[in-house]
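re: that chain from earlier
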Amino acid sequence: MKVVMLNAGLGLRLRPLTINIPKALVKVAGKPIIAYQLDALLSQGLTDIIIVVGPFRTKIKRYVRSKYPDVNVIFIENPLYHSTNYIYSLWLTKGVVNDDVILLHGDVLFEPRLLRRMLTREGNFVLVGRKNVREPTKDFRAVVLKGRVLRIGIGYSGPLARPCIPLYRFEREDFNLWLEKIEEHVARGEVGIYAEEALNELLEDLIYLRPIYFGEKSLCMEVDTLEDLKRAEELLKMRIQDA
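^ sequence. v structure.
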């Protein structure tokens, strides 16, 4: 099992915190986001990690190599991070990933138990909020019907749409199908779209994607804004109090 972490974003919505450091090194309750992610991955025995980097790439490399010397890490640089979305970052991993994959964005905080549920099952999965989870006004929603994810993206609404967190598990063959579809978009110069737009072209017929559900009080969220950062710290505080 390989892990792909996407850390080539500019983190503009977290400014001024991201003026001099990447979003991955922004601290939540005194600990960088990337440290929470790596600790969760290592707790499940995942040590082969590919990190796509962009701005402040040297700072990310230095942090990971100094704090996690036992991780087998490959860094891939996205030189076009200023002008591309992460569809391009994901495309850069083509030819490097040769195994089943855990894919996550570099701003996701999650509980290791959710990752464990992905790893103890066969198939393709993504994190999706239960019905009692507040539907966010931003970012991804998954359209789920009879236990199958049919669409992921911005703007979906209605009774079948649920909050969706970009942490996936893919079997190797299906991940390669996604990369091949991404390559078609990149070849046409469509590098400013979300990678999920390419995935949606495969979900109904070629890739069976299932939800792993999380609840309202779960630590499972993207840290995009200062408001998100505050919410993450509240959730972490609740976890410590309940421990």
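The helical segments are 33-43, 57-67, 86-91, 112-119, 172-187, 195-203, 226-242.
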